[in-house]
Amino acid sequence: MTAVSTVAVVGAGVAGLAAAIQLAKAGVEVDVFEAKPELSALGSGITLQGNALRALDALGVWEDVRAAGFPFEGLTLRAPGPTAPVVAELPDVKTGGPDYPAGMGMYRPDLAGIMLAHAERAGVRFRFGSTVTGIDDTGDQVEVVVDEAPVGRFDLVIGADGLHSAVRRLIGIDTEPQSTGMGIWRAFVSRPAEVVRTELYYGGPVYIAGYTPTGPDTMYAILVEKAQDRSGVSDAEATQIMLGESMAYGGPWESIRTDLAAGAHVNHTWFTQHVVEAPWNRGRVVIIGDAAHSCPPTIAQGAAQGLEDAVVLTELLIGRDAVDQAVWDEFHARRLPRAQAVVDASVRARAVADRRCPRRRHGWADLRHRAADGAAGMSVTDVHAHVLLPALQDEVRRRDPEGFAAAEALDAVRNGAASQAVSGPMVGARIPKLTDVRVRLAAMDEQGVDRQWVSASPNHFYPWAGSSWPSGWRARRTGWSPSMSRRHRNG
Fold it and tell me: Is the residue at 89 inside a domain?
């Protein structure tokens, strides 16, 4: 016997579909109310890490998802520049365990279509074009109102209606997503044969550039920029913006630009963050997924956390015989700390990317010590905190021990000895000045380059990137290079 026999799910996104599938398979009558006239998803891609794949397996959709996506292992880091030199090829954490790949890219509408098909086969009823405008919890049941008209009573209502959740507002929760100061451009493009896993570029005119394979011939590309109002930008203007911002990046980006110029669709969204404090329920109405929490996509955990919400909630509802406080206490105990940890890690990873802010960059080494508060679902953060930064510091220490010691001494003066002891050496901001200032200046003078127009990348982040530098790195007045912030100019 289950705790519920009838459930209304508001929202046909990943979290809502997951909850509907599990409950319907257990014999619960499920109605899904979706405001849009049909199932839709932005036509780009999604990255699913191992914990998301494990959740999809629990739903019974993993085999179909695996056939439609592109599994991969690890992460490649590249530097900006015409040749896009590979900085590192890093292992990734198998957050779903050994039975699943570390990650997988997938066309987002394909994932939605697979989950919809499984939900329909399980007996879920879908009501598209239905905007929920009212919820009346009578204690034993909840009446759902669509377009101001009652449509039925249910034992439970699950609000999985996204960032701007109507259910969240209707039950009196006033927490809203907040911008983190970044926006992201996405495009669905063809996959060059050399791209076999996620590759990220740091430095240049945007915070992060990258791409993830989604199929034999497809991938999605991203550019993460400073948040700004792009609401009035036309499709043609969006394409031109993405073309322009990508000019600092070579390698597979040449193919991406060809697709963009040929008409590949581009979309833009802002990074947001929020976590609703417990409880996520008000009586017999509960919110999950993006309605309850959101995070920047820096560690690819948005959909994964919504899936986990759905799996845990439905496990409790199916395994109990009543919707009582014990159900809600266990649900919040299992989900809230994990969701909070993932949001915190995502925001910290966003700060790592914000190389334009010295104070944020000074937090890198501190992140190395603090990011161990939950490994599952944080593999990209772990890469930055536990692999990339230590490797960078070790390389700087090896190449310029005197400069590294000077950086430590400078940090002790600027930040205080106590802060230095806790945070470790924060050398990121001073790596170029301490490791290669003489060769940089000599190369610029030899080439007749005006120093104020020399990009700090890749050497600003990765002093050892591109062994052929400076001959392989051509700084120019125009094009991709003049992206260095003012404080790095003139050596």
Answer: no
Whether residue 278 sits in one domain with residue 201:
no
- 204-257 residue pLDDT tens: 889 899 999 999 999 999 999 998 889 899 999 999 999 999 999 999 999 999
pLDDT digits (tens, 9 = 90+) for 51-100: 999 999 999 999 999 999 999 999 999 988 888 988 888 887 788 888 99
Same domain, 166 and 280: yes
Say if residue 462 is in the same domain as residue 314: no
Q: Report how many domains make up the chain.
A: 4
Per-residue exposure over 53-80, b if at least 16 CB sit within 10 Å of its own CB, e if not: bbbbbbbebbebbbebbbbbebbbbbbb
288 alpha-carbon distance from chain centroid = 18
Query: Which residue, among 426, 363, 420, has the nearest Cα to 396 in the 3D structure?
Result: 426
Domain coverage including residue 127: 6-70+106-177+273-349
Model confidence over 118-160: pLDDT tens digits? 999 999 999 999 999 999 999 999 999 999 999 999 999 999 9
Nearest alpha carbon to residue 293 among 168, 377, 183, 172: 168
Q: How many CA atoms lie within 13 A of 27 on its CB side?
A: 7
171 and 194 co-located in one domain: no
Return the SS3 of 206: coil
Residues 478 and 447 in one domain: yes
Can you tell me the distance from the alpha carbon of 76 to that of 210, in angstroms, rounded to the nearest whole number?
10
Residue 476: DSSP 8-state: -
With respect to residue 246, please indicate whether it lies within any of the assigned structural domains: yes
pLDDT at 471: 31
pLDDT band at 491; cut points 50, 70, 90: very low
> Cβ distance 59 to 117 under 8 Å?
no
Residues 485, 462: Cα–Cα separation, whole Å? 17
Domain assignment present for 98 = no
Do 115 and 140 fall within a single domain? Answer: yes
Same domain, 253 and 277: no
